[in-house]
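Can't paste images in this forum, so I'm doing it all in text. The chain is below; anyone willing to post the predicted structure tokens underneath?
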Amino acid sequence: MTRSRLTGRDGAGREPGQAGGHAGAGLNGQAGVPGSPLGLHRVLEPAGVLPQAAWRLDPRPAIWPDEVRVAVSRLNLDAASFRQLREAHGGDPAKIRASVLEIVRTRGKVQNPVTGSGGMLTGTVEEAGPKSPLGLAVGDRIATLVSLSLTPLVITDGLAAWDGKSEQVPCAGHAILFGRSIAAKLPADLPAELALSVLDVCGAPALTHRVVAACGTPQPVVAIVGAAGKSGSLSAAAARQAGAARIIGVVPHEAEAQLLRAAVAGGPPGQPALVDEVVIADARNPVGLSRAVRSAGGPADVTVVCVDVPGCEGGAILATAQGGTVIFFSMATSFTAAALGAEGVAADVTMLIGNGYVPGHADLALDLIRAQPAVRAIFQRRIDDHGAADHGAADHGAAEHGAADDSAVNHGE
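Text version of the structure:
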């Protein structure tokens, strides 16, 4: 048996001394030995890191007893990653497809080497190990709620059905879920594309709800930067549900403002508006963003950043009241810029990085999309228009495309 000189693992990703077996022995060649619930047994290089930080994973289809193999039907690339790929290749669909295929081939997962982020997927359970704690059964249609940047993946159709113009990627292949992975069964009452879009960003509204509910201010003011996007609109709905007295929706240009106003106007009579005020501001302009929020009733007690470009940290900090909270839901957020920026302006604010997971986040997001026609209209518009890649979701980038919608924070992302 050969072992990697770099990792000390054998070709199946096992540590020295970990039981393995030849093909056909035990459960799919794994001899019934449980893998690490964190997926450490799938890390090929470098040694001693979690799957998300690994350069390369073992995506082979044989599963350990606590793993689940999924037949993949669709990937949802996170917005920051898709933006980077599109800009790096001048929007050429063939080059974008080739780049994604090369990432998966060399890394055994989808992890953009520039942004470090991935996305999430939908598919059907092909096999569930007898010791899997996920509660999934063969035939279940699911969406993963962990990032593609830590999910072993093989693509078998060359992405032939993907036009390269949207972050939603129809494809065939398989993926592996670990014991500590998270997945949700796709709801029967919602179209699969809509459910995928919602679950891709479900961490944002859940954390927003938690923070606003615990704010401690009698009538909290909440600013949503990127309020016409997927994560932004859901976060606005969650903030309202959690008791926000005033919600300020920040968008980058008039087209986004019109989209948000139309969604608000289209709500049923008697239902609280998604936002109370729509303002146009460039989130990369700290003073301009702060002035816009303050003119609309701020500063905010809670500011939620749902955009996918760098340089938004300073504006979010200045738009937030002393003692308030800023939640960053973007793979483009810089810890250094946020920490030193707050220090440099003597801002006493709590800054949170949304990690994409809050207990109950999937159910909360799906319930919001069912109960909020205005939010569902925004999502459906994105889907009908091929998503953020082509029709300007709520961000503040030079091309003004693509909401900060990973899981990151899905997600994960």
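The chain has a mean pLDDT of 85. The domain at 191-413 is CATH 3.40.50.720 (Rossmann fold).
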